[in-house]
Design goal:
The model has no long low-confidence stretch (mean pLDDT about 90). The radius of gyration is 17 Å and the shape is globular. It is built from five helices and seven strands, in the order ββββαβαβαααβ. α4 crosses α5. It has one domain: Rossmann fold (3-Layer(aba) Sandwich). β4, α1 and β5 form a beta-alpha-beta unit. It starts with 8 loop residues before the first strand and ends with a strand. Strands 3-2-1-4-5-7-6 form a seven-stranded mixed β-sheet. With about 180 residues, it is an alpha/beta fold.
C-alpha cells in the first residue's frame, strides 16, 4: 500500500521560526530558511507547487501587496490554503517597526475574494475567505467581546468602524483558499 503524498508547505519570510515540515524562504542568512532569496521580488518555484503557503508577520512588510499575493497564488495549487497573520491597524505593533509599510484591517483581503467582481482587473489573483479571526487584548477576550467580533461579521464591521481604537485589536489571521 502506498503512503499518501506529503503536503508541501511554503513558509515565506520564515525567519528563525520556520513552520515544522515547511520549505522556508527568507532574504537573510541568519534564519532557518532552506532557500535564501529576495522573496519580495518573487518566489523561486514553479507554478502550483504548494498545498499551503504561510505569510506570518510578513505581508505588512512587502513593498507591493498585490504582487506578493499574485506570487503566492502562482505557486499554490488550486484549493491550497493560504495563512496570513498581520498586526491589526489599531495595535501599536503595526506602527512600531520601521519595516512595516502597511496597516491592515480584517477586511483588507476581501478585495481578493470572489465578491468584488467589478475590481478583478486590479487583483487577478483570486482567493476564497475561509475564515478571518481577530485577536483582541486579553481583557476583551475575557469579557467575551472577541467572541462576538469573530462570530458575527456585522459585529466585526461595527467594531472595526467605530470601536477598534478603544477596544484595540492585536493581530488578524486570514485563512484563505486559492481559487484557480
Amino acid at each position: 500500500m502506498s503512503q499518501p503524498a506529503r503536503r508541501r508547505i511554503l513558509d515565506v519570510g520564515c525567519g528563525r521560526g520556520k513552520f515544522p515540515g515547511a520549505i522556508g524562504i527568507d532574504c537573510s542568512l541568519a534564519t532557518e530558511a532552506d532557500v535564501i532569496c529576495d522573496w519580495a521580488r518573487g518566489y523561486p518555484f514553479a507554478e502550483s507547487q504548494f498545498d499551503e503557503v504561510r505569510l506570518i508577520h510578513v505581508i505588512e512588510e512587502v513593498p507591493d501587496i498585490m504582487a506578493a499575493l499574485a506570487e503566492t497564488h502562482r505557486v499554490a495549487r488550486p484549493g491550497a490554503r493560504v495563512v496570513i497573520v498581520t498586526p491589526h491597524y489599531s495595535d501599536h505593533s503595526s506602527y512600531c517597526s520601521p519595516t512595516h509599510r502597511w496597516h491592515l484591517s480584517s477586511f483588507s483581503f476581501w478585495f481578493f475574494s470572489d465578491k468584488p467582481r467589478e475590481y478583478d482587473y486590479y487583483a487577478p489573483a483570486r482567493f476564497r475567505e475561509r475564515r478571518v479571526e481577530v485577536r483582541l487584548l486579553r481583557l476583551w477576550r475575557w469579557l467575551g467581546f472577541e467572541f462576538l467580533v469573530n462570530r458575527f461579521r456585522a459585529c466585526r464591521r461595527f467594531w472595526e468602524h467605530y470601536l477598534c481604537f478603544f477596544v484595540r485589536g492585536k493581530y488578524i489571521t486570514f485563512d484563505l483558499e486559492v481559487v484557480k
